[in-house]
Inverse folding.
């Protein structure tokens, strides 16, 4: 008896088989369609304004400071990809207060130290994309990316297959980084 999984099994009407394997990632369609992007630049629609109102685990917050916080990127480039966001809804780096600028810089340093201690990356990409044309997915609320990098993490899969494999669930990554963050652990 033959099953649909046998190598010799052919599904009628699907055309000629090719040499490609398929890695199905249907969860990515939300990001591709922009379903979580705010409809406007107002604070009401801003995910970076809503996240601090959530429980840390639900919002993927790793650490809360006085005027800024560290949160996992919902659509990470690599495992441990953090965003450092001011609590205040502000779009432009030049509009940050001195306290916001200082704490974003300090949280960036803490993020790098914490990720290094936990996952041993070979390097980091740090950056702020100012404006949609510069690549900011949510341009209305400033956020700095802290992306851990490892040798060989940019293999053929994202380039050819437009797919990124993630070795750990976001909730597990959040727990691990929050526990290792310097100071008192957050809830």
């Amino acid at each position: 008896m033959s099953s649909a999984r046998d190598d010799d099994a052919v599904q009628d009407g699907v055309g000629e088989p090719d040499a490609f394997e398929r890695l199905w990632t249907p969860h990515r369609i939300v990001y591709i369609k922009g379903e979580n992007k705010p409809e406007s630049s107002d604070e009401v629609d801003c995910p970076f304004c809503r996240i601090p109102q959530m429980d840390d685990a639900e919002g993927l917050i790793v650490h809360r400071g006085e005027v800024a916080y560290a949160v996992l990127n919902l659509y990470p480039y690599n495992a441990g990809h953090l965003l450092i966001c001011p609590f205040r809804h502000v779009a432009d780096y030049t509009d940050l207060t001195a306290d916001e600028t200082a704490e974003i810089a300090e949280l960036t340093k803490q993020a790098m130290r914490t990720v290094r201690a936990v996952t041993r990356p070979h390097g980091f990409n740090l950056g702020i994309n100012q404006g949609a044309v510069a690549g900011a997915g949510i341009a209305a609320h400033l956020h700095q990316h802290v992306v851990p990098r490892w040798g060989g993490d940019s293999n053929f899969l994202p380039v050819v297959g437009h797919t990124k494999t993630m070795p750990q669930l976001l909730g597990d990554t959040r727990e691990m980084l929050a526990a290792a963050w310097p100071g008192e652990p957050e809830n």
User: Anything to note?
Assistant: Strands lie at 61-64, 68-72, 82-86, 123-127, 144-149. The mean pLDDT is 82. The helical segments are 29-33, 47-50, 56-59, 98-119, 156-161, 170-180. Residues 128 and 144 are 5 Å apart (CA to CA).
